[in-house]
Amino acid sequence: MPNGAQALLRTLVEAGVNVCFTNPGTSEMHFVAALDDAPDMRAVLTLFEGVATGAADGYGRMAGKPAATLLHLGCGLGNGLANLHNARKARTPVVNIVGDHATYHVRYDAPLQSDIETIARNFSGWLRTSQNVEQLCRDVAEAIDAAKGPPGQVATLIVPADLSWSACQSKAPALRREAPPVAADSRLAEAANALRKGNKAALLLGGSALRERALVAASRIAGATGAKLLAEAFPARLQRGAGLPPIERVAYLAELASVQLAGLDNLILVDAKAPVSFFAYPGQKSYLVPENCRVIELNSPAQDAVGSLERLAARVGADQQIPALQAPIRPKRPVGKFTAEKVCKAVGHLLLTTQSLSTRRRRPA
């Protein structure tokens, strides 16, 4: 009969979570042992918890699905907080698994005992401590479901050690979420009217709106209406380069961002928040939207940003508009002493040279 750790791993793999970034300790050893029976789970050992949480954040952003972490007690969780904070802000899907002392050992207040839930509450959109082994698989399944969203979030599951080594007969239920809805008709109408008026408008894109399909729809809208395209200052992930629409990022410094936003009559937010200064400065505004600019939130993070943009494009007659796309630019081969900039140019030069040669070889004689 499998134990709780084996059932936990089986649930993760069956739900499509097949990478786990780990920095385990004594409380997680049964999970580590169970990895021998889970060939479909790739475990990546890290030497510091901040590396594990940072890797899970980066994986979730690029893969579009959650990885798992495995951390040791509240102390290990505390060491990974900075990158879990980043994951929360980026709405990255992460299944954050934290081991704890056995349930019957907690009352002795051992040297490494801590209030893990209090630590985890700062960045977790979903949080639970498993109470018994028969509930463990359901808890794992619900954590995965919560992490996927939308919006994506950090889902933290705390697993007492005795649940991992106890026999477990339960199996996770199949949890299915409905497809996220597009923006409400009222929001689509409000945004379309603002774009049609001919006033100075901008689309501020963030989150899932900065992927190729959404960028193309936004570029069509901008081409048909004259709206400005802007991206969040620090997007979770931004697809860019040759063959994709160019987009200007909001500047980090408040003074420069204020120049970019100056004169706007309407700012349409697409999976983004209204821009604010990263810090407060004497004599500077914290809220960077111009005073008389109307802010329209097209969709919430729980809604389909791509579908919302495509419907907005249809409303303003831009669905057949040809999007503006970046042309490929081959950097010249740098000469002289290497600098960071020249290294980047050298890589770009070699990459495009290799692609060009490969294309020539594939051409029929």
Protein architecture, described:
By secondary structure, this protein is an alpha/beta fold. It has three domains: 4-165, 3-Layer(aba) Sandwich (Rossmann fold), CATH 3.40.50; 185-315, TPP-binding domain (Rossmann fold, 3-Layer(aba) Sandwich); 330-365. The protein is 39% helix and 15% strand. It has a six-stranded parallel sheet with strand order 2-1-3-4-6-5, with helices on both faces. Strands 9-8-7-10-11 form a five-stranded parallel sheet, with helices on one face. α2 links the parallel β1 and β2 (42-45). The N and C termini lie far apart (63 Å).
Structural shape: globular
Mean pLDDT across residues: 93
Radius of gyration: 24 Å
- Under CATH at level 1, the class of the largest domain stands as Alpha Beta
Task: Using the coordinates shown, work out and report the CATH topology of the largest domain.
Answer: Rossmann fold
Task: Give the number of helices.
Answer: 13
What is the total tally of β strands?
A: 11
pLDDT under 50 segments (min length 5)?
A: none
Proportion of residues in extended strands: 15-25%
In the CATH hierarchy, the architecture of the largest domain is 3-Layer(aba) Sandwich
| H and E order | HEHEHEHHEHEHEHHEHEEHEEHH
Distance between the termini: 63 Å
Structural class: alpha/beta
